[in-house]
Amino acid sequence: MYARLQTVAARPADEDLAPRIAALVSGHPGFAGLVLLTGDDDVGGLVSLWLTREDAELASERSAAVRGQRPFTLTRDEIYEVDADEPGAAAGEEPAVAFLGEFDGPLSPARVEAARYAGTRRLAPVLRTVPGLVRMLMLWHPTERRMAALHLATSTAALGAVSEAVMSTTLLPDEDPALLPGPDRIARMRVLAYRGDRVAPGSTEVGYLGGPGAAR
Q: CA dihedral defined by 141, 144, 147, 152, rounded to 10 degrees?
């Protein structure tokens, strides 16, 4: 599965635009889900999920064929592979808030392996039990060797509980804290629209969101 991450510097003021965007994008071939986001500074974002890379690449062209020219300018437009996609304890509920943690590249093979190992062995068992956590995704950009982690939760309190759960974990004996410095940038945003159509079949991984200071 693939994820397309798009952002705008200023979210359009039209409150009806979010459901219209969600309805338009969800009708495209290969659609597998989306979350439409906004920050306190009115920065807007869309993470859309697709079954194939081709469908992810063609999404904007297909939208333009229906809607015409995009009514806002993108500041970012990137396609990632979905490295992990796992439901949380509140799977099936509507998320209200999101956490996005980004790891700048190029990440070394050792750092990528360490992040995946931490996610599956240490963090996933803890995060699966956090009330209010809807979904966890880890995104991988293979050419630039960057990662992004997205957590969706039902409330700000639930998102805070996720952070506390990460902080409560202890590094495993074979983990190297030097390889786990944590994300380079983080953002907490409100969810304007969500379509959770699919979760990747057989997915068992969840991405690493903490750093050495997030584990004892």
A: -50
Q: Show the domains of the chain with their CATH numbers.
A: 2-214 (3.30.70.100)
What are the distances in angstroms from CA 185 to CA 84, 86, 149? 20, 22, 11
Q: Full-prediction pTM beyond 0.90? A: no
pLDDT tens digits for 76-103?
999 999 999 999 999 999 999 999 999 9
Contact at 8 Å (CB) between 93 and 154?
yes
Amino acid in position 180: L
The predicted-structure confidence for 126-147, as pLDDT tens digits, reads as follows 999 999 999 999 999 999 999 9
What integer is the mean pLDDT of 50-60?
Answer: 95
DSSP β-ladder status, 31-38 and 74-87:
unpaired
Question: Which of 211, 187, 205, 206 has the alpha carbon at shortest distance from 111?
Answer: 211
Question: Helix 17-26 vs helix 53-67: angle between axes, to the nearest 10 degrees?
Answer: 130
